[in-house]
Write a structure and sequence with these properties.
There is one protein chain. The protein is α/β, with parallel strands linked by helices. It has one domain (41-59, 72-358). The protein is built from eleven helices and nine strands. The chain has helices at residues 10-31, 41-58, 91-98, 146-161, 181-189, 217-221, 249-257, 262-265, 280-289, 321-328, 347-358; strands at 77-84, 108-114, 165-172, 176-177, 206-209, 246-248, 293-295, 299-301, 338-340. Strands 2-1-3-6 form a four-stranded mixed sheet. A three-stranded mixed sheet has the order 4-9-8. It has a two-stranded parallel ribbon with strand order 5-7. The chain is globular. The termini are far apart.
């Protein structure tokens, strides 16, 4: 018997596979990214403590502002809640929005939740975006319940801080205003009518998008696994909506007191099509008080060419007065008041249009 001295034909193949393993692992890590870490127990306890303090203060008839941000005021205010994981790129434009009139200064409050792992430039003490506007924050992750936690943290802080806060508007660092502050305020409180606004906000509705017919709803419903949402949330009760909303004080309080649905929505997702912040708020409020919600948002978003779950991002070459006018248009009762998403280099063109277009109602 003659033994062959030639190498096995499988050896080159095996060597090639061994050499390819690192590349395969790298490719897989991009194709199938690891899920974000779950919300830690200490973070959960911190939030619960904040929520309980805010709820307790709300039930106290002698509730007074807890910081110098809040002040007793005969007129109701709008609390603007900025949720950001980077610097507030459009801060100069928002400065013009808020400071358009001296009479505006007692009609709004500002709170900023900035991801603590991101270095955010602190504005001068005289700026409306100075350090004292920042609230205690935790790290956030995309496609994770941490974005729900951040929004609830902002709501609780604003509730606790100032009893005059009547509406709570969630904004991102990529949002811009489409009207002046006074125009927005007038529409929310109907001050152009013959009736006095005062505390009539108790009868107003929250502006939050609530969608039942969405082609991806079933996939998103099962993102944590089949039947995981049961029995608290059946499929017919699971809603889709925009991450950004304007809630009444009554609904803001309901959101921070909610525990039952939170136990489901805080669970980590097993599929990529998972955006908890777009489901928790519309699902809960539609179950708790559907008649108290308009069913639509005041923030315009262009989903015509979505990329990896992100909406269309406007760039400077697209900006014009015509675009601003078109973004304002809505099929609902109220026009759009804000819009997203804009690239950082849009700031200067937007500033050039601010006085003559954006804030000229």
């Amino acid at each position: 018997m003659i033994l062959s001295s030639s190498p096995s034909p499988w050896i080159p193949t095996l060597l090639l596979l061994l050499l390819s393993l690192p590349i395969l692992f790298l490719f897989a890590s991009h194709m199938f990214p690891s899920p974000p870490p779950p919300i830690s127990f200490p973070d959960e306890l911190d939030d619960l403590s904040l929520f309980r303090r805010a709820a307790a203060a709300e039930s106290n008839p002698t509730h007074k502002p807890k910081s110098r941000l809040g002040s007793t005021n005969s007129k109701p205010k709008i609390a603007f809640l900025f949720l950001t994981n980077s610097d507030l790129q459009f801060a100069p434009l928002w400065e013009k929005f808020f400071n358009g009139s001296k009479s505006n200064r007692n009609l709004y409050t500002i709170y900023i939740h900035a991801d603590p792992t991101v270095k955010t430039k602190v504005k001068p003490a005289g700026s409306i975006f100075s350090q004292d506007r920042f609230v205690p924050a935790k790290k956030t992750h995309r496609a994770a319940a941490t974005l729900i936690s951040a929004a609830r943290r902002l709501l609780a802080t604003a509730l606790l801080d100032d009893p005059s806060n009547a509406f709570f508007t969630l904004i991102s660092q990529h949002c811009i205003p489409l009207h002046s502050f006074q125009f927005f305020y007038n529409h929310l409180f109907e001050v152009n009518s013959h009736q006095v606004a005062e505390l009539r906000h108790l009868k107003y509705k929250s502006f939050i998008e609530i969608i039942s017919k969405d082609p991806n709803r079933w996939e998103r419903y099962n993102a944590r696994g089949k039947k995981v949402m049961l029995p608290e949330v059946t499929f017919d009760k699971f809603k889709v909506g925009s991450q950004f909303f304007t809630l009444t004080r009554r609904h803001a309080l309901m959101v921070i007191q909610e525990r039952r649905l939170w136990k489901k929505f805080r669970l980590p997702c097993l599929r990529r099509a998972c955006y908890p912040e777009e489901h928790y708020f519309p699902t809960f409020l539609s179950m708790a008080d559907a008649k108290g919600c308009t069913g639509y948002t005041l923030t315009h978003v262009n989903w015509t060419d979505t990329v990896n779950g992100h909406p269309h991002t406007y760039i400077p070459s697209e900006l014009s007065p015509g675009l601003i006018y078109s973004l304002r248009q809505s099929i609902f009762v109220q026009p759009y008041m804000f819009a997203r998403k804009f690239s950082p280099d849009c700031l200067q063109p937007l500033m050039d249009m601010a006085d003559d277009v954006i804030f000229r109602d």
